[in-house]
UniProtKB/TrEMBL annotation:
PANTHER family on file: BG-LIKE ANTIGEN 1-RELATED, BUTYROPHILIN
Record's keyword annotation contains Lipoprotein: no
The protein's name: Butyrophilin subfamily 3 member A2
Family to which the UniProt record says this protein belongs: Belongs to the SKINT family.
Lineage: Eukaryota, Metazoa, Chordata, Craniata, Vertebrata
Length: 282
């Protein structure tokens, strides 16, 4: 009879071991990892926010939520359903390709300036909760600089550099044809239009300045700078050539040399006329 009971005892032991393994797996702790540096994406573009578990675990039966400033962005539920946040409705998509290995990626489309900030990625199992933070920076590359000449008084002029549609606020750098840094004539002017920055800056140009001016708009975030250049024509500051000055002096001397003998001869002739008139009267 004892021998007949052994298979049941073995089965019970095996079931107990399996139950312990299941409970241990359910109680496994994990960490949530995310990119440490800020992510940059263009205004109106698309960004991918990724989080994954360490050690590698399946997140299929977990709840995963992305949120920002306490507001839900996108929610994944253990039954496989999803809920989009109200502000992000129609703009988010969950990429589940790596869900079995604990990796989920949230795609956000049509980015706005209001989407910039810190996002919380939260994983929750029956026994463990973990989260990580991601930073998103939204950028906008403005227009090519427009150079405008004004305030010309014959001796100097103002050259203004204008560029619009930047985010975040850019810097303006002036240089000449020799790559020497120039100092603006006044502090750069910055205004905001629908959240984007418009910037303008001016330099003073005189007849002694390098005729080549270069205006560069330098973004504060990673991205290409925008550059425009202008060549100031000599017509703005007419200069008399040295050979013209020499010719003028030469002609002036010649006129003087011709004028003095002519004046002398005129006086001689005048004296003779007076003498002749006196003789005739007598």
């Amino acid at each position: 009879m004892l021998g007949a009971r052994r298979p049941h005892s073995s089965a019970a032991l095996l079931s107990a071991v399996l139950l312990l393994h299941v409970q241990a797996a359910a109680a496994v702790s994990f960490q949530v990892l995310a990119p440490s540096g800020p992510l940059s994406a263009p205004l109106g573009g698309t960004v991918l926010l990724s989080c994954h578990l360490s050690p590698t675990l399946s997140a299929q039966a977990m709840q995963v939520k992305w949120s920002r400033l306490g507001q839900d962005v996108h929610l994944y539920l253990p039954d496989g359903s999803e809920v989009q946040g109200e502000r992000y409705r129609g703009r988010t998509e969950l990429l589940r390709d790596g869900i079995q290995s604990g990796s989920l990626v949230l795609r956000i489309r049509n980015l706005t300036l209001q989407d910039e900030g810190h996002y919380l990625c939260d994983f929750q199992s029956d026994s463990t909760v973990g989260n990580a933070t991601l930073e998103l920076c939204v950028t906008s590359s403005g227009s090519d600089p427009l150079l405008h000449i004004g305030g010309y008084d014959g001796k100097q002029m103002n050259v203004t550099c204008l560029s619009v549609g930047w985010y975040p606020k850019p810097k303006v750098l002036w240089s000449n044809g020799h790559k020497e840094r120039l100092t603006p004539s006044n502090k750069e002017k910055i205004s905001r239009n629908q959240g984007l920055f418009d910037v303008s800056s001016s330099v003073v140009v005189t007849e002694h300045s390098d005729p080549t001016l270069i205006c560069a708009i330098i973004p504060s975030s990673p991205g290409p700078e925008k550059v425009s250049a202008i060549l100031i024509s000599d017509d703005f500051f007419p200069q008399v050539s040295s050979w013209k000055v020499g010719l003028f002096l030469f002609l002036s001397v010649c006129v003087c040399l011709l004028f003095l003998p002519a004046c002398y001869l005129w006086r001689v002739q005048r004296a003779k006329r007076k003498s002749s008139n006196l003789t005739t009267k007598k």
